[in-house]
């Protein structure tokens, strides 16, 4: 088994008489073979409920859970994991409900190959020879794809809440996340207590029992909340990036405020020394997908080095906090009042937002922007963006008009997911959760080699609580994240709790691009974006010369990621597992 395999790779044959092949060695559970990658939250109660011994492994828990709960197993088996359970010629493919540990599969004439390692699956199946243009079009338009596609036409991934049953190697997809709809009627104080307890349980479950534990601490409210909850359970290290040379990106003062309230061992990483664009662009390895890690190669490596020196086994993030704590959520519930014909309530709430919101907008603005526009967008399946989407021609002027029109990029910016919630307010929460999940799981495409990266704020109980929090509790015109701010008063720094905004790192990132001129030279020399018909040569050259001043920064970064990824496809290498002497049967 190659050392770089992340998790497992299993080949399920279509011939019932042929053996299953899998790497690494499977776990034997009765008459089944189990491959498991990730972690289960609260394994002790699961063992008790499933009548298993205290020594039962996560794989054995999953196998027993599938037998007990069948299609509902993903609702009971909480954590971040993926697993394959094989019995004779039948198999079950399952992952955690939020899809935080992606499970990829590729159907071939003789088998379906399943893996938690996208790079290994691409290499073993040769999927790199045919790219998925639909996936790339989504990337060019919005910077992410929220569905089952991957950059490769022959590879898909399980969606949130999905599992698959395989008979003789042919997967049948089943299930899927259905967002909760019924509001949980509680007082504001009651919701504070629910949120506080749910966060504490999620963070405690994400910590491991061995090795050192750490939290990514940015100085924001979400990572400060995770840190406060984690320190109540175990000794914690805090890892932070600081930008001493870029005041617009530096958050050292906020980090120190968080540490005053929650004293832990702090390990700042100088992001000026380990800057975005400091490594690369020729990285000399196969890149499974275009992600931010390509740009952040140097800072990611620096974080891994610090964590390894500390003996960290688990690093917790604050990913998804914006979604589950309702950061910046507009009053889309006004559209629900309009849909229900509750016009008096609509007028009252619009006047309240006019009087109490710091934006200083009229009641008529809120009726038009949130009620009328929200209802129209919800009915047509269009996204509920925080801000009106820019025209692609303005956001990415380097893209060829023929490509933009031919792949309907402008329309893609408006319809980012087919998942539907029964209310407009709920739909906005769902879309924010989906974006948070996608960013979190993209970090597992290039997973750390020595520790496990976990995202406790995206655990299903916390997502469900966000979905069932009524609009009159979730959204307050005076301050966003109201429930979170009150729930963690006394636990999180008062200064951080009162923080109203958080800067983005564009200043430091753009400086990194300008400082490392080899990136501009590399990206401008025979660009694949131009050769493949995505970009106009002159417009792309202009964008490279005026980075951050032409088009939108987000679209510019996405284009760079795709260009570098395309130019590293030749590093994929030959199959190592499904051919040759290592391809021995395992079950």
UniProtKB/TrEMBL annotation:
Residues 55-122 form the Glutamine amidotransferase type-2 domain. SUPFAM superfamilies: Adenine nucleotide alpha hydrolases-like, N-terminal nucleophile aminohydrolases (Ntn hydrolases). Residues 195-566 form the Asparagine synthetase domain. Keywords: Amino-acid biosynthesis, Asparagine biosynthesis, ATP-binding, Nucleotide-binding. Pathway: Amino-acid biosynthesis; L-asparagine biosynthesis; L-asparagine from L-aspartate (L-Gln route): step 1/1. GO terms for biological process: asparagine biosynthetic process. The keyword Nucleotide-binding applies. InterPro entries: Asn_synth_AEB (IPR006426), Asn_synthase (IPR001962), ASN_synthetase/amidase (IPR051786), GATase_2_dom (IPR017932), Ntn_hydrolases_N (IPR029055), Rossmann-like_a/b/a_fold (IPR014729). It catalyses: L-aspartate + L-glutamine + ATP + H2O = L-asparagine + L-glutamate + AMP + diphosphate + H(+). Gene3D superfamilies: Glutamine Phosphoribosylpyrophosphate, subunit 1, domain 1, HUPs. GO terms for molecular function: asparagine synthase (glutamine-hydrolyzing) activity; ATP binding. Pfam families: Asn_synthase, GATase_7. It comes from the Bacteria. Its EC number is 6.3.5.4. Belongs to the asparagine synthetase family. This is asparagine synthase (glutamine-hydrolyzing). It comes from Mycolicibacter engbaekii. The lineage of its organism: Bacteria, Bacillati, Actinomycetota, Actinomycetes, Mycobacteriales.
